[in-house]
């Protein structure tokens, strides 16, 4: 298998595949008919995979680590539904640490959303926002809770024991310190050695391809220059959905970006799904939301979910992907009105953002086999 990497190199590199393909989750774009037909197919496929995933087992453990709480436009996070007066809401980005053993007994460690918060600040949208925000205001709106490496040290996980780095998409992500570079990096003052020397980035091939020539709608959210000298061998591009380990799957959920993907976990409380397709569990069941406007908007427009819509690359596909996620997830044991959907960036109440306090928050996924 070969691939031309899109960020400035013309090398053609043989890249291995990873995981077991999920035959029950097919490419919805191949379904005859329009987006409505694809929506119906998404429900049926999700129901089938929901029965299939538990047969693969459960991972050894799932641990949640908070990274940063930051402002995010309300009109993006709650799309057209919110009637909150606050122009910004707060979201908390968290990393999930998943551990399991392969059938041959080999231990595995997967990091989901291991964001380098320091370098992520230079994403064009957030960089421009920071330049316009006085320092005294920024200090009240941004809280850094911990670092990726700090959390791993606390958990007793050595960086060389990490096997997989997975993101729902590569918005805001700068991976140079995680996987190294092939050249000197002027902005870092060094050619960084990889913090995770044995880790591979599992990413949809569609997203890598889309980064070859970003559309104007995409440009505010990517840092393409940060990938120009990342070694191609650091990536494991996949096409579609795969099972990586017992109860651990990466499922293709296009829409928010072309190559969006979700983490799906079978745990002691049932199936969880995590991505940034929505920013709160109640966005999957807005009829139960107390956020101003969500329930009424859902009824008025017949919308079953409320999208996280900072990008509108393929909005109908994103809606269909969220329905797939909603169908896969079990209901919360804490409050069955809400699914076990864990936003990778979860809506967080703050006194500075009136009208945006979530009705319900998961806060963490905790699992121990």
How would you characterize the overall build of this protein?
The protein is an alpha+beta fold. The protein has one domain (2-368): Ribonuclease Z/Hydroxyacylglutathione hydrolase-like (Metallo-beta-lactamase, Chain A, 4-Layer Sandwich), CATH 3.60.15. It is 22% helix and 23% strand. It is built from 10 helices and 17 strands. It has helices spanning 35-52, 74-77, 117-120, 124-132, 135-141, 148-155, 176-179, 205-210, 294-301, 315-328, and strands at 2-4, 12-14, 20-21, 61-73, 88-101, 107-112, 143-144, 164-166, 200-204, 235-238, 242-245, 248-252, 261-267, 270-275, 341-343, 345-348, 367-368. The strands form 3 sheets. Strands 4, 5, 6, 7, 8, 9, 10, 16 and 17 form a 9-stranded mixed sheet that branches. Strands 3-11-12-13-14-15 form a 6-stranded mixed sheet, with helices on one face. A two-stranded antiparallel ribbon has the order 1-2. Helix 1 runs parallel beside helix 10 (315-328). The protein is globular, with a radius of gyration of 20 Å.
Give a short summary of the structure.
This protein has 369 residues and is an alpha+beta fold. 22% of the residues lie in helices and 23% in strands. Residues 345-369 are annotated as: Disordered.
């Amino acid at each position: 298998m070969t691939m031309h990497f899109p960020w400035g190199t013309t090398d053609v590199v043989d890249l291995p595949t990873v995981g077991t393909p999920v035959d029950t989750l097919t490419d919805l774009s191949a379904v005859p008919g329009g987006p409505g037909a694809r929506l119906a197919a998404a429900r049926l496929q999700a129901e089938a995979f929901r029965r299939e995933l538990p047969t693969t087992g459960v991972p050894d453990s799932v641990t949640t680590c908070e990274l940063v709480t930051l402002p995010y436009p309300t009109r993006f996070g709650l799309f057209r539904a919110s009637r909150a007066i606050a122009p910004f809401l707060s979201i908390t980005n968290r990393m999930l640490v998943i551990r399991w053993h392969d059938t041959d007994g080999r231990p595995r460690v997967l990091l989901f959303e291991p964001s380098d918060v320091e370098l992520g600040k230079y994403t064009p949208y957030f960089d421009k926002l920071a330049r316009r925000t006085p320092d005294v205001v920024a200090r009240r709106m941004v809280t850094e809770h911990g670092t990726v490496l700090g959390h791993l040290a606390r958990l007793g996980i050595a960086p060389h024991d990490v096997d997989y780095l997975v993101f729902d998409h590569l918005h805001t992500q700068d991976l140079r310190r995680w996987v190294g570079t092939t050249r000197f990096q002027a902005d870092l003052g060094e050619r960084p050695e990889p913090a995770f020397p044995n880790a591979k980035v599992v990413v949809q091939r569609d997203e890598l391809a889309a980064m070859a020539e970003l559309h104007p709608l995409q440009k505010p959210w990517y840092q393409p220059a940060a990938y120009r000298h990342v070694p191609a061998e650091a990536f494991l591009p996949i096409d579609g959905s795969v099972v990586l380990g017992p109860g651990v799957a990466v499922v293709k959920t296009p829409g928010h970006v072309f190559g969006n993907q979700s983490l799906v976990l079978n745990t002691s409380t049932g199936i969880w799904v995590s991505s940034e397709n929505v920013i709160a569990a109640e966005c999957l069941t807005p009829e139960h939301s107390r956020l101003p406007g969500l329930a009424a908007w859902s009824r008025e427009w017949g919308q079953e979910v409320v999208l996280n819509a900072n990008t509108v690359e393929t909005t109908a596909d994103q809606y269909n992907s969220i329905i797939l996620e909603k169908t896969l997830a079990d209901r919360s044991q804490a409050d069955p009105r809400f699914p076990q959907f864990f936003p990778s960036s979860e809506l967080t109440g703050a006194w500075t953002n009136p009208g945006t306090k979530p009705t319900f928050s998961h806060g963490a996924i905790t699992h121990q086999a």
